[in-house]
Amino acid sequence: MNANNGEERIVHEVALVLPKRTRKEEEEDCVEVLVTELKKRGMVVDRDVGLADEFLKVAAPLETLESAAAELHIRKPTRLGMDLPFEVQGSEAFIQQPDGSLFSWFERFRCYQHLLYGIVNCYGHDVTLKLDGRELCWAPEESLVRKLESEGVIKQMFPLHDELKRKELLRTWALNWWNFTNQPIDKIYSYFGAKIGVYFSFLGMYTQWLLFPALLGFIVQMVNFGSLQYLVLPSFFVITTLWAALFLQFWKRKNAALLARWQINCLVGPSQGYRFLGMEWSSLPFPKELTKNLGNEKFKEKEPYQRYEWFAYRKRFSNDVFVIISIICFQLPFELAYAHTYEMITSNIIKFVLTAVYLLIIQYLTRLGGKVAVKLINREINESVEYRANSLIYKTYIGIFYHVLLHRNFTTLRQVLLLRLIISQVFWTFMDGSLSYLKYSYRKFRARKKKRSEGGPSTGKIQIASRVEKEYLKPTYSASIGVELEDGLFDDSLKLALQFGMIMMFACAFPLAFALAAVSNIMDIRTTALKLLVTMQRPSPRAAATIGAWLNIWQFLVVMSICTNSALLVCLYDKEGKWKMEPGLAAILILEHVLLLLKFGLSRLVPEEPAWVRANRVKNVTQAQDVYSKQLLRSSSSEFASMVKPEQEQQKED
């Protein structure tokens, strides 16, 4: 559902994939029953037959979405400044989205899931469903969609692209190369959801800020400063460190402004400590009998919570220690072997091949480590899916090593970094565009081959005319590891964090890396946009409204870059390796401590929220207090009046 100029435009946003039937049952056909039940729920269903499958395209009018949102008690911001559960009667009081619709894409998708999986057997007896001679028993109070999924009747449920909005985004975003880093962020948020919108906003801001150190790094790399080179590199190191600290602090401000503009309240959520009361009591690791006695003795109340808290911390800490020890035992020797082999080889071609093989092995080790991390996370106690996803990010990124002090020669280190940046860019470009297109082409080939084997035309090309079938054949936007925890943004964010780590941790050794990163990011904005809009299915929306654990990793990389660049400057000034505390080396140590203090000082000097966001929040809180106060006074007055009135009547009778 979308609103255009006051008129409702019905858009099929979800599709169900069913196997093509060989015959149609006369009665109790499960597909016909499903279509009937969907229409009873108020949804608009359109059927489409493809080469090998049948598709049900589902749309929900505004009235149906409103009913589902009221049943789910979705909390939405109102014009009063409060987040209240949605009610159909007071829908005018709720604030609309930037595109003019009442519900965001994440809220609509939740409503679709509720409507589809909420179809249950209300007849009070078993219902026999038929499909191609098979009989299925639909038990009372059982979800019809889940039953058909378990029996293999429904192959997949996936979001559909809105062709009108998709073409508009292609024109104004993916194919609009002249805008460089400018992007229609509000439209991206409305179409893909908050998480993807925030990611592209972060990528665009990062690329814009990268232009300054890119220009400066190009000058430092290309211009021969002669004897001043020993002063230019430390100055460049100081500038880039301050630049990175300021960028991350101003990103927090922009993120807060985005959430305020999109009317997303992130103050109450899983990021605010453990939400014990928001969890199901059955999921807590202490007996249910303890919950019955809450309120009797305060000291005894705290004991199960404290045991739960420290038990969860201990599990996560032991898993992190296991990951670190595994890396030291397995990956670090491999890194040392690569660095030693690279030093021994003289041919540049062999070095290029060695680096390519090294990066492929690192990619495999990262995926292997990610699988281990997923198993460890499943044994942890995390309060939400987003917390589990953040834990996966930390455990995977621990395995990314940089050979900082393995190459004391600046020329060798520059060659290694240049090869890594070039090969990484080629590899990720292939992964982003070519691989998804090859998967799509292969699936179309298999569908045509299956159609031909089932009696289709033996000559000529079989065309796939159905748009929904083309969407179904496209690969999903999923992560290379931890599919159940993360979507494709995991790989994109990992690529960005690796790039930031390389350019920051080796800023003194290879200043030109900033320029290469800026060019790479400008291309990456468009290629990733094309991937999302053309070669992949529309991603399912995620609730996260920040970049999550990646921000902490970037903060950590800034701190690490101060240490590594100081070490590189020591190598530059101490070519003989005597490690004497000469005035230059002492100055480097002092510079390191000063930069660390400045980095943490800037995080306190620059506010994380713009003044208008804070003022708007205070205004909303004040309005909410006024409304609650008036309601409390009215209820108190009515109760007092009901108590006084009988007494007055009794006095009159006396």
Automatic annotation (TrEMBL):
Residues annotated as domain Anoctamin transmembrane: 188-618
GO MF, any single term: chloride channel activity
InterPro entries (UniProt xref): Anoctamin, Anoctamin_TM
Record's subcellular location: Membrane
Transmembrane segments: 196-219, 231-251, 321-339, 345-366, 387-405, 417-442, 503-523, 543-572
Top-level taxon in the UniProt lineage: Eukaryota
Membrane-topology annotation of the record: Multi-pass membrane protein
PANTHER family, A to Z: ANOCTAMIN (PTHR12308), ANOCTAMIN DIMERISATION DOMAIN-CONTAINING PROTEIN (PTHR12308:SF81)
Gene Ontology biological process terms in this record: chloride transmembrane transport
Name of this chain's protein: Anoctamin transmembrane domain-containing protein
Cited Pfam families: Anoctamin
Gene Ontology terms: cellular component: membrane
Keywords of the record: Membrane, Transmembrane, Transmembrane helix
Principal location: membrane
